[in-house]
Write a structure and sequence with these properties.
Strand order of the largest sheet: 1-2-3
Distance between the termini: 36 Å
Strand content: 15-25%
Largest sheet: 3 strands, antiparallel
Shape: elongated
Number of strands: 3
């Protein structure tokens, strides 16, 4: 599964990587790569406590 992540420079120094719902996490680092690595650690920690990410397919409902 792939999710969009925003990486942006922080005022002063460093970067912040963040994702939106359903995984509203963010992590900072001195480089873009470090920010992403820190974000991955946070996500893995959350998933290791029993959380799961699953796809949900919605079909158009028929109306009469």
């Amino acid at each position: 599964m792939q999710i969009p992540i925003l990486i942006e420079p922080m005022a002063g120094n460093g970067y912040r990587a963040s994702g939106g719902e359903p995984l509203p996490l963010s992590a900072d680092g001195d480089t873009q790569e470090q920010a992403m690595a820190n974000l991955k650690k946070k996500l893995k920690a959350r998933l290791s406590h029993g959380a799961v990410v699953v796809p949900l397919e919605l079909r158009r409902l028929r109306t009469r």
